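job 3f2a | input accepted
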Amino acid sequence: MPKTANQSIADRVHDLDWDAITDSLFSHGFALTAPVLSGAQCRNIAKMFNNDDLFRKTVNMAQHRFGSGVYKYFKYPLPENISELRTAAYEYLAPIANAFNEALNRPERFPSKHEQFLKLCHKAGQTRPTPLVLHYEEGDFNCLHQDLYGELAFPLQITAFLSERETNYTGGEFLLQEQMPRAQSRVHVLKPEQGQLVIFATTYRAERTTRAFRKVNMKHGVATVESGKRDTLGIIFHDAK
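job 3f2a | predicted structure (241 res):
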C-alpha cells in the first residue's frame, strides 16, 4: 500500500515511476501503477455508490447492451479524493498525451493544468463531469469500448481498483484490446490489486516502428465476474456534452 498513511493522494501520484509509466504507455498502451489509494479510501469511494446525491446519472449497462452492471457519473463538485486524483494525475499525463500526438503528427496539444483543459471542454459545450463508479456483481461484464463524450477527448484515462481480488470477487479481469494495423488484434488481461491504478489509452497510442510511429487503436472492457462484487473508479479527464 502507499508508503505512509499521511501522504496525500497527490503526493502518491508524484511518487509514481513516471519514466516507467511513459515507457509502458508507448510500448503497450497501458501502465499498472503501485497502489495509490489506501484500503480505507477504496472502501469509502465504493460506499459512495449508494449515495445518489453525489451523482448526476445512473446507467444500467444491460439496458443499452453495453454489458451487465451499473455505473454512476459523479456531479460537480466532485468528492475531494476524486478531484485530487484527477487533477494530480493530469499534470503528469498531459506531457505523455502531447508526446503521443507529436509522434503521430497530430496537431492537438493539451495544456499543462487540468483546469485549463476543462475550460476548453466547457467552451466546446462539454460541461458534465465524467468520473464514475462502476459496480459489478456475479455474471456482470463490460463490452470492449472507448469513452468518448464529445469533440474533445483526452487520450489517456485511469481505472482505480476499489475491491480486493479473490476476497471481494473472482473473475472480472480488466481487458485491453490493441487493434493492430493490418494485423490481428491483441488483448491484455490484467488483474490489479486494491488501490492500484491502470493508466491506459482512451482511443489510441503511438507505437514505434523501424521507420517512425504508427497509430494503434485501443478499446477496454471487463471480463465476466465469476463471484462476489467488484467496484472500480473511472477517471476520465474530458467532460461530456
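job 3f2a | The chain has one domain: 9-236.
job 3f2a | closed
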